[in-house]
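Morning!

As promised:
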Amino acid sequence: MSAAQEIQKHFPFGRLNRLLDGHAPGDSGIEVAELPKGAPVLLSVGEPQDPPPPMIAEAMAGAAATWSRYPPAKGTPEYLEACAAWATRRYGLPSGMIDPKTMITAIPGSREGLFFATLASMPDRAGNGAAPAMLMPNPCYHVYPGAALAAGAEPILVPATQESGELPDFAGLSQADLARTALASYCTPSNPQGAAASLEQLQDLIRLARQHDFTLALDECYAEIYTGAPPAGGLQAAAALGGSLDNLLVFHSLSKRSSAPGLRCGFAAGDPKLIAALEVMLRTGGAGVSFPVLAAGTALWNDEAHVVLRRERYAKNFEIAERVLGNRFGFRKPDGGFFLWLDVGDGEAAALKLWREAGLRVLPGGYMARPGADGVNPCDAYIRVALVYGPELTEAALNRLAEVL
Ligand SMILES: Cc1ncc(COP(=O)(O)O)c(C=O)c1O
């Protein structure tokens, strides 16, 4: 099977379409302003459904003359500085630790950043003969294994289950696997479970990456959506270890933070050598981030008020989930992100039932994971529910979900 065929075979939303396409959606019975009466409710995709901040349109209109230009190679100085200033504020970094010129680059989103960083991190294939490996959690965002396959690396999926605290233990892998690891992707707060790594766990990961000389790619795209204390980040862990960014890349975007996934605007920060290699790949195969988008991004990274509002909206949704679900389906409030990760016994059967009986579209958890060495998919019992709507619709949808299951 070619890499493209294998990526296609596992694509979670293709699998969901194949599961549900032959079945008409049931009437949701929901009557709220956000949705035509009884229409299906899409809880399968992590796409914020609130309107994006008006400052996006304003900043882009102000920069309209720059549509005639190709996107700059690494972002504008204003954009890179806004990203560095945000990271410094968010993670309490020593001022001057992040050099915006060499340690940051603009990316359309964490998806593209991770994908191109994977291509950029693959060693010379003529090396010692062992296939390069890419580590990732199981379950995970589908782009991680997709990037590994596209780059010719072997994806090694490491259990991120309740037993492992919902985060993967890369340090527990064999020395042989760690020796051939070119890159490890790690998500915090994680999709789907919403588990956030502690500062100590991130420090240990950085130490592990340096010991075995692989790239640690931290996907922190949910860093701003949290329910309690702000989750720690890789740059913060690097600061605590003395300030070097060796072997580290972190990925951030405005998709979740600013409800703007269509903007395609984010940044990667980290080791200058890795940033330079990532830029080579981005310039070769990427669309770049255009001047008007960078103008909007600069305004968004410099503003916190719109982010506070979004965080409150998601926190309210989790309170609703707590009230409606209690401890059914193993529900507990996650550290971050906006997903429910529910143990419903049989994720595919539950997704089909929710769709046919109530028009609720959710993702079977098994579609985000691969079977382990024992042939068992550790997430077959789960569904992932994206709480991306307002409180009224969220409450109605969760009531229906609880009723049907
Ligand atoms: C874990 C994870 N990483 C990355 C992405 C991609 O986000 P972006 O829009 O920043 O590329 C998503 C989007 O859903 C995600 O869930």
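The chain has a mean pLDDT of 96.

Hope this helps with the figure draft.
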